[in-house]
Design brief:
Blueprint: E1 5-15, E2 18-25, E3 28-34, E4 39-42, H1 54-62, E5 92-99, E6 108-109, H2 115-128, E7 150-152, E8 161-165, E9 167-168, E10 171-172, H3 174-178, H4 180-189, E11 196-202, H5 209-214, E12 219-224, H6 233-247, E13 251-255, H7 258-271, E14 275-279, E15 281-290, E16 297-310, E17 315-321, E18 326-330, E19 347-350, E20 363-369, H8 373-379, E21 382-386, H9 396-407, E22 412-416, H10 418-422, E23 443-447, H11 453-459, E24 464-469, E25 482-485, H12 488-500
Parallel strand pairs: 1-4, 6-25, 7-16, 8-11, 8-13, 11-12, 12-19, 13-18, 14-18, 21-22, 21-23, 23-24, 24-25
Antiparallel strand pairs: 1-2, 2-3, 3-20, 5-17, 9-10, 15-16, 16-17
Length: 509
Amino acid sequence: MKIPQGTFIETAEFVDGRVHAKRIIEGGYQMMSLPLPCAMSFTPTGIDPRRATLSGAVRARKAEIKMLNIDDVNLGTDFIGIGVPGENGSPTIVSKVATIKSERAPAKIAEGHNEVELVDSLLAHMKEGKNTLEVKEKKVKEVKKKPRDREIDFRKGASGILTWAEVVKGEISRPSLELLTPARELASSLEEGTTVTTLIIGKNVGDLAKELIAHGADEVIVVDDDRLEEYRILPFSETFAQVIKERNPEIALFAATTAGRELAPRIGVKTDSGVTADCTQLLIGEHLHRDKETKERIAYAPILESRRPTYGESKLATIIGFVCPQISTARAGTFAVPDRDDSREGKITPYTPTLDESEFVSEIIETVIGEGGMQGLFEADVIVAGGRGTTSDGMQMVKDLAEALKEQGVNAEWAASRVMVDEGVSEYARQIGQTGKTVRPKVYVAVGISGAVQHIAGMKESDTIVAINNNAKETIFANADFGIVGEYQDVMPELIDKVKGGFTFGLEK
């Protein structure tokens, strides 16, 4: 609609004819002022559910529901249908869906008659090591290339991979560095000479270009503008659109942070591209399609296969697009940061976009970022997360355990499940799960967490998972390496004392 937008809004009010909104960002929040008209999306924590009343239910029975078709809304058929080159419809399609299977061995459950024995048993089990799965040798099947009549390169000259380096508090965010891992892998799967270019936008950000090259970028395009010191959706998306038009990349990658999740779709609209969100795998493959008229078997290649969990994290969907750039956002914490090599050489290119004053109609009033949050969770060696079972003290012992680990010299942070965020016990920046952060610490301690698939999605890549819950039947134990079945208020004080006495979950101090 070409109007300003605000996403992840928690609260909003009218002030002098404009909307003043509190926008949740990684590690804190941002106060912004939006003109009318504007589009806004709200976080679950910002909206109390509306409950049905008896009188409302009576009125609903008699209400007439007005139905609209595509002609009523002037949508037409250009945007309806299956997205296949040469046909109308979506620029992306779901090419296949696979079941996600857990590869974690059964947990070692602590044994004992009281909390002291249970915690001692946990320590003993962790010293012994986790259970391992019996790996059966699989017969390697010869993969035969499926027959095709012809192969089509749909890219129309597009080449190269473009990523975005998000700057937070004067530093490149960790998720942006993680992007360079799949970017380099994709480049190596494409034609020889395929380059990885990173766009960085901000104020005095030129010195950060060398860091991006050291981590894998071949070229860094630097947009240095005092007006762009802080991320703003309108000028940032317009800058990207201009760079894409000039460089014509075949793939564009963004981290699925609060900024990346809103920036990628807006760029997709500007470039008529499809966007696949929240990906955990990015590969180069091909798509086979049978032409309805000629009956030819056509292979579209090379094509980006963007894979993302769906159906409550039980399935892995592969989504492909036929318009370049093929745009995807990657879950933060899913990919490792590439090793830094300061001897790498690359190109640094200054760039000045043409930005109209209309791109600056939204204003940033204030930005507040704490010390923990995004970076702390992504870099922590141990994360202690609390769920519904920790409400009795407002997660205080969860925080105390993390603090005790810090006192022992361990890089530890505390986090929360979505229910604790919804209830206002924790800020959104510390939420782990499908709608929060994806983390991969060396040790993840899940306290009072049931183990819903949405939460498991955010922490299943942890090296070691320890579950503490009073219900032995909770799903969390099926996704853990070690477990204690016991009451929160009994087990946690004993575990905190053990940490203060030197126990660090097997990590070196």
